[in-house]
Design a protein that fits this description.
This protein has about 210 residues and is mostly helical. The chain has two domains: about 1-45, Arc Repressor Mutant, subunit A; about 50-205, Tetracycline Repressor, domain 2 (Orthogonal Bundle). It has eleven helices and no strands. It has helices at about 1-25, 30-35, 40-45, 50-60, 65-70, 80-95, 95-100, 120-130, 130-145, 155-170, 180-195. Helix 5 runs parallel beside helix 9 (about 130-145). Keywords: DNA-binding, Transcription, Transcription regulation. It comes from Nocardioides pini. InterPro entries: DNA-bd_HTH_TetR-type_CS, Homeodomain-like_sf, HTH-type_TetR-like_transc_reg, HTH_TetR, Tet_transcr_reg_TetR-rel_C_sf. This is Helix-turn-helix domain containing protein.
Amino acid sequence: MQERSRRTQAALIRATTELVAEAGYHGATTKAIAERAGVSEGTIYRHFPDKKALFAAAVMAGQRDVTEWMEQLPGRAGSAPVVELLAETLTQLSRLREAVLPLEEASPHVMRPVEDLSREELVDALRSTGGPPLLLADFLAAEQRLGRLRSDLDPARTAVMLLAAFLGVQTSPLAGSKGLDEDDVQLFAELFCAGLVTGRDPAASS
């Protein structure tokens, strides 16, 4: 059953990628995606919480270099100051900027706000998307187990908010045509870490 589910998800992601290339994000309707994948339209929502999550999964599937780097991240928990690891992670995620830009125009109303999702729905959404979002959640959970992050944080929810905030800034006109530079990424990491780490000075957390 799990293998069949993986094959179906892969077919939906492949169909989405093909249709987006042919017709753009707005032209890649869930009906067209389902027909291309050879499944019913309702099948999409058994594997992805909504249309934008499916688009995000397609983006992540096309960014294997970033995903492969992120796969090592949970195992690196505790190996350097939290802010240093986070800044390095955000630098890698900056490479997703060009891929994520079209998502900003891809019917944002189909995505339920994170505060409307239960923890179980959020984790399911992360797992269906896979790649960097889930790996970032795993990294935060590992740091939390080491006592380096606040114990009251929900790693899955925190990962979603971090990614949403960072990619939101990166794709904003305020970031310019090239996005945040290295110094800005470092500043973003320090600001975000100020609310995550157990110590007062995120740059000193180890």
